[in-house]
Design brief:
The complex is a heterodimer of chains A (91) and B (246). Chain A is built from 3 helices and no strands. By secondary structure, chain A is mostly helical. Chain A starts with a helix and ends with a helix. Chain B is mostly helical. Chain B has one domain. In chain B, 71% of the residues lie in helices and 4% in strands. Chain B has a two-stranded antiparallel ribbon. In chain B, helix 2 crosses helix 7. The longest helix of chain B is centred in the C-terminal third of the chain and has 37 residues. The chains are: A mainly alpha (91), B mainly alpha (246). At the A-B interface, helix 2 and helix 3 of A face helix 5 and helix 6 of B.
């Protein structure tokens, strides 16, 4: 008899824990650190690419700062666009 | 005491010079070779006496197969199974490379930006070629022009999309490289604390940093798995983008 009681208790406990467990599984697919790292990289890498492309064009056309400035700004916009899209997906 | 960055130093083991290009066999190449040999042994031993009811070794191989197969199924779909061997190789190579770095006195080849960038750049090239072959050049170029946008805005949007596309190999490679390098540097720095504090305070002071070091080693092993997984899953997503251009 005592055994059955124990089993019942365990069953109750499992049932209580199940919704929590499901929530945890959903949340822990990517850690907060991972998300932060991904977002910061998504912000920075287009800026780096923009700088490189801009400097390349500047060297090619020898118009020193113009293309660098244009592509730097485009890179910044692209970085923020990446983050905007990612945040939209998160919600 | 050696600097925390000394572990990333490349040492030439076997100098080879091919037409003026230095292709010496270094400790980085040795680490890659060891990881390839390890993977071959892992797969060979696991599948040597393959049976329907798997042995322990075989079930590890089968779990890793199913893990990647599920990842491809979830992220690309059935037509992605063509690229299974590529992603499986990539995942195992990076995973074993990361884990190999956790052995004392070994070398982490994934902690070098040039290695990870080369891998990421070839993935980027392959994805672009796949997209062009599957859909043709015109449809591929339309990928950069979001639909439903007024035409004057396209002048601004196409370069932005292009830059964001070109930044993929950088974000892919820097993610792996930065995680591995930061983790291993941190381990070395804390390791330096252990000795310094223990020597200056009759061993008692060394207890705190060494317990911290134990926790960090565990975290570093988790990161080794996580980064290999992230690298593989991002490759899946890029291939998915290439196959289903929207």
């Amino acid at each position: 008899m005592t055994r059955d009681k124990n089993f019942d208790e365990i069953d109750k406990r499992i049932k209580d824990l199940e919704p929590k467990n499901k929530e945890n599984n959903k949340k822990n697919t990517q850690s907060n650190f991972g998300i932060g790292f991904k977002i910061s990289l998504d912000l920075i890498s287009p800026i780096i690419v923009g700088c490189i492309v801009g400097l390349g064009f500047d060297n090619f056309f020898s118009m020193k700062p113009i293309f660098f400035i244009i592509f730097l700004l485009l890179g910044v916009i692209a970085g923020f666009l990446n983050i905007y899209r990612y945040m939209k997906k998160l919600r | 005491m050696a600097s925390p960055l000394a572990q990333f130093e490349i040492k030439t083991l076997l100098p080879i010079d091919l037409f003026g290009i230095d292709i010496s066999f270094t400790n980085s190449s040795l680490a890659m070779l060891i990881s390839v040999i390890f993977i071959l042994f892992f797969l060979f031993l696991g599948l040597r006496n393959a049976s329907i009811v798997p042995t322990k070794k075989q079930s590890v191989v089968e779990i890793s197969y199913e893990f990647i197969a599920n990842m491809i199924g979830d992220n690309i779909g059935k037509e992605g199974m063509k690229y299974f061997s590529f992603i499986f190789t990539l995942f195992l190579f990076i995973l074993i490379g990361n884990l190999l770095g956790m052995f004392p006195y070994s070398f982490t080849w994934t902690s070098h930006i040039i290695v990870t960038f080369t891998i990421a750049f070839f993935i980027f090239l392959a994805v672009t070629v796949i997209a062009i072959f599957k859909h043709g050049v015109v449809k591929f170029l339309k990928f950069f022009a979001p639909s439903g946008v007024p035409k004057p805005m396209l002048i601004l949007l196409i370069p932005i999309e292009l830059i964001s596309y070109l930044s993929r190999p950088i974000s892919l490679s820097v993610r792996l490289f930065a995680n591995m390098m930061a983790g291993h540097t941190l381990l070395k720095v804390i390791g330096g604390f252990v000795f310094g504090l223990a020597a200056s305070s009759y061993i008692i002071g060394g207890i705190l940093p060494i317990s911290f070091l134990v926790a960090l080693t565990g975290l570093e092993i988790v990161i080794a798995f996580l980064q290999a997984y992230v690298f593989a899953i991002l490759t899946c997503l890029y291939i998915n983008d290439a196959i289903h251009l929207h």
